[in-house]
Amino acid sequence: MNRRLVIAGAPLILALWLGSIPVGAQESKELAAALKEVVDANIEACNKRDIEAYMLTLHSRSPGGEETRSQLTEIHKKYELSYRLVSYALIGSDADTAVVRVKHETRKVKGPEFRDNELDLLQVLRKEKGAWKIWSSTILE
């Protein structure tokens, strides 16, 4: 089962990607690092099976946020899974929205039958009270 349960439409992702505002090299590195901290915290929360910490990485108005909480609760009842970031790249951004490409793997540690997998995602992050939060994810592969 996929832990990225909040899905955005591809047209929104493409519009953000193609309409991104270029930034300077240093500013881009700082932004990429700040966004990666959110992605890392999200994955760490999954590895710790800490739903509250996971939810803190999501934007409070993220579509499907409460459904995500419910589904994670069910996943944690059945499985112990291990998550690992494989790759990460900043695609584009504007003042309060950014798009990153994330590849992560999920492996079963304990539980019933589960297909280990690697997901390739586009994630949209939006600012909330000055902090970057995950708004949505779209599976590419």
Annotation keywords:
four-stranded antiparallel beta sheet, disordered N terminus, 4 helices, 37% helix, single chain, alpha+beta, globular, 141 residues
Oligomer: single chain
| General form | globular
Tell me the fraction of residues in β-strands, as a range. Answer: 25-35%
**How widely separated are the two ends?**
14 Å
- What composes the largest sheet? 4 strands, antiparallel
H/E element order: HHHHEEEE
**What's the arrangement of strands in the largest beta sheet?**
1-2-3-4
Low-confidence stretches: 1-18
Average of the residue pLDDT scores: 87
* Structural class by helix and strand composition: alpha+beta
Structure description:
The chain is α+β, with helices and mostly antiparallel strands and 141 residues long. The longest helix has 23 residues, at 25-47. The protein has a four-stranded antiparallel β-sheet, with helices on both faces. The chain has helices at residues 10-18, 25-47, 51-56, 65-78, and strands at residues 80-93, 97-110, 117-128, 131-139. The protein is globular.
Can you lay out the helices and strands and say which pair or pack?
Blueprint: H1 10-18, H2 25-47, H3 51-56, H4 65-78, E1 80-93, E2 97-110, E3 117-128, E4 131-139
Antiparallel strand pairs: 1-2, 2-3, 3-4
